[in-house]
Amino acid sequence: MRLNELFFALQKFFEATFKILTKLGNFPNVLFIVVGFVLFFIWLRQMFAYNREAEQNGTLK
Fold first, then answer.
1. I want to staple 60 with a disulfide (CB 3.0 to 4.6 A). Which of 1, 10, 39, 54 is the partner?
2. What share of the chain is helix, strand, coil (3-state, %, to 5)?
């Protein structure tokens, strides 16, 4: 396989991917934002749980 063939294959792949993304519209952006917020609140809940546990054990500075 020549390097030229590899680059053309990548070009076709990215063109197809971007065609799909344009048809989806704003949905991928909304999906990433929603997933980010959900993960952020899961992280906050874990952080508060660890702080509460450390406070009960007397290891919180």
1. 54
2. 85, 0, 15
| In the predicted structure, residue 8 carries a pLDDT above the cut 90 | yes
Domain containing residue 11: 3-57
Which tokens sit at 61?
Answer: 């500075």
In angstroms, how far is CA 16 from the centroid of its own chain?
21
More confident position, 13 or 60: 13
CA angle 42, 43, 46 (to 5 degrees): 90
CA pair distance 49, 43, nearest whole angstrom: 10
Give the total number of structural domains in the chain: 1
The reported pTM is: 0.65
